[in-house]
Amino acid sequence: MKAEVDKCKCIGCKLCVELSEDVFVMDEDGKAKVAFNPIPPIKEQYAKEAEYACPVDAIKVII
Fold first, then answer.
1. What is the reported pTM?
2. b/e map of 19-58 (b: 16 or more CB within 10 Å)?
């Protein structure tokens, strides 16, 4: 499983980092980015939760 963050949509709210800080981190521009791909199976549920919770639909989890 992989994840992507649309930098044009991201507002830097940090919700994804709070929900899954091992999967998402903030970059130097204050936008979220994926810490690593592919996402380990043990972290997949956290990535899905962040995708669902993102207020601007900037996160896409790809199976």
1. 0.91
2. bbeebbeeeeeebbbbeeeebeeebbebbbbbbeebeeeb
Ordered domains of the chain (ranges, CATH): 2-62 (3.30.70.20)
CA dihedral angle for residue 19, residue 21, residue 5, residue 28, rounded to 10 degrees: 130
d(C-alpha 31, C-alpha 61), whole Å? 17
Going residue by residue through the chain, which has 63 residues, state the pLDDT in tens, using 9 for 90 and above. Answer: 999 999 999 999 999 999 998 899 999 999 999 998 999 999 999 999 999 999 999 999 998
β-pair partners for 26: 32
CA-CA distance, 10 to 1, in Å (whole number)? 21
